[in-house]
């Protein structure tokens, strides 16, 4: 189990977690700043600024891996006091932990702004650098927390600890963890380390915008779809995923294969074949009946290609562009990494 204690600088995360370690038997305290220390000592000088850690992919990867490794060693929960304010970073780290079968309990310490400002003014800045510059950075970061508070309130259990001692705060956290009230309902399974075959369905509205979905377990938007299960055909997987993710009942014979893309594995992400189907247009009544699975998908959106360019990672955007071209031209595209690959000419007879 992972207990992620979030909040602005000055919210009292670390002091509460130190007290919490005595309330949850077998728990261990993991401060992700130690990963930052490692990266600062290893990467070229200036590569990691004082407030840049969550923006660094290596940090997010190592934090998830370290927390998972500690969970394997510990007899109780891993306590993680760390500010995490971008939703896509939350998705990446929590999704990686959920993929390891680790439940994540997300708590945000949320004293009122005046108390936060007072605490920032008096803190020593040991964890973020010393002196007035560190306090100034903390003050400048406060509006970022206040802006993120909207999505945090929908994702985590908020605790106003403005008048609570660290011990009282820890007792409140322990209570919500034991009750399960702070557990993130992330649904994620990973079956092995090898390459996979996955099927996606492109669905369109009456303006020919494409439907994208927002997974709760990884950054960036995605096409509806998922991994083909053992003994299942890709077309059947596309139909099943549309039903599970959107509540749609598609018929296999109505799907048209647009593109087959070989995706190379990178870092912790597995590669394999990605098949993209045209699922047709959805009428207004079908759009109204769209239903998302709790803990797996957060939202859906019909996007123009320009909007999709801001929502999808580059390789997935290339796949979409190629699939849309195949749809317009009535032909099947073979891709590698989202780019058209040479298939060779037919041999002479």
Secondary structure topology:
Elements: E1 2-7, H1 13-20, E2 28-29, H2 33-42, H3 57-73, E3 78-81, H4 87-99, E4 104-109, H5 113-122, H6 132-155, E5 157-159, H7 166-179, E6 196-204, E7 210-215, E8 225-227, H8 234-246, E9 256-263, E10 272-281, H9 284-288, E11 297-303, H10 305-311, H11 314-329, E12 333-336, E13 339-340
Strand order of the largest sheet: 8-6-10-9-12-13
Low-confidence stretches: 345-349
Q: Could you say which structural class the secondary elements and strand pairing correspond to? A: alpha/beta
> Which percent range fits the helix content?
25-40%
Strand content range: 15-25%
User: What is the level-2 CATH architecture name of the largest domain?
Assistant: 3-Layer(aba) Sandwich
For the sheet with most strands, the description reads:
6 strands, mixed
Textual characterization of the structure:
By secondary structure, this protein is α/β, with parallel strands linked by helices. It folds into 2 domains: 2-179, P-loop containing nucleotide triphosphate hydrolases (Rossmann fold, 3-Layer(aba) Sandwich); 196-340, Nucleoside Triphosphate Pyrophosphohydrolase (Alpha-Beta Complex), CATH 3.90.79.10. Helix content is 39%, strand content 20%. It has helices at 13-20, 33-42, 57-73, 87-99, 113-122, 132-155, 166-179, 234-246, 284-288, 305-311, 314-329, and strands at residues 2-7, 28-29, 78-81, 104-109, 157-159, 196-204, 210-215, 225-227, 256-263, 272-281, 297-303, 333-336, 339-340. The strands form 3 sheets. It has a 6-stranded mixed β-sheet with strand order 8-6-10-9-12-13, with helices on both faces. The radius of gyration is 23 Å and the shape is elongated.
């Amino acid at each position: 189990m992972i207990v992620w204690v979030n909040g602005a600088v000055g919210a009292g995360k670390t002091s509460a977690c130190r007290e919490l370690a005595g309330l949850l038997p077998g728990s261990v305290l993991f401060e992700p700043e130690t990963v930052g220390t490692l990266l600062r000592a290893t990467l070229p000088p200036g590569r990691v600024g004082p407030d840049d850690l969550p923006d660094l992919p290596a940090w997010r990867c190592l934090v998830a891996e370290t927390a998972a490794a500690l969970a394997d060693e510990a007899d109780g929960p891993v306590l993680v006091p760390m500010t995490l304010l971008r939703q896509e970073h939350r998705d990446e780290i929590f999704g990686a932990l959920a993929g390891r079968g680790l439940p994540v309990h997300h708590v945000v310490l949320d004293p009122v702004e005046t108390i936060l400002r007072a605490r920032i003014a008096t803190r020593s800045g040991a964890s973020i650098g010393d002196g007035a510059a560190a306090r100034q950075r903390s003050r400048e970061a406060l509006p970022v927390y206040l802006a993120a508070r909207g999505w945090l309130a929908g994702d985590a259990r908020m605790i106003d600890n403005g008048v609570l001692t660290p011990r009282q705060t820890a007792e409140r956290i322990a209570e919500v963890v034991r009750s399960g009230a702070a557990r993130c309902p992330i649904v994620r399974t990973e079956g092995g380390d090898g390459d996979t075959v996955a099927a996606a369905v492109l669905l369109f509205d009456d303006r020919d915008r494409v439907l994208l979905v927002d997974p709760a377990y990884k950054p960036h938007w995605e096409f509806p779809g998922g991994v083909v299960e053992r003994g299942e055909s890709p077309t059947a997987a596309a139909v099943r995923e549309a039903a599970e993710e959107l509540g749609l009942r598609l018929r296999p014979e109505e799907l048209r294969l647009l593109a087959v893309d070989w995706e190379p594995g990178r870092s912790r992400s597995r590669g394999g074949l990605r098949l993209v189907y045209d699922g047709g247009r959805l009428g207004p009544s079908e759009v109204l009946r769209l239903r998302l699975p709790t803990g797996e998908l957060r939202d859906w959106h019909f996007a123009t290609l320009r909007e999709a360019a801001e929502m999808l990672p580059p390789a997935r955007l290339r796949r979409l562009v190629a699939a849309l071209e195949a749809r317009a031209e009535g032909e099947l595209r073979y891709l590698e990494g989202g780019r058209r690959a040479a298939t060779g000419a037919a041999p002479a007879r």
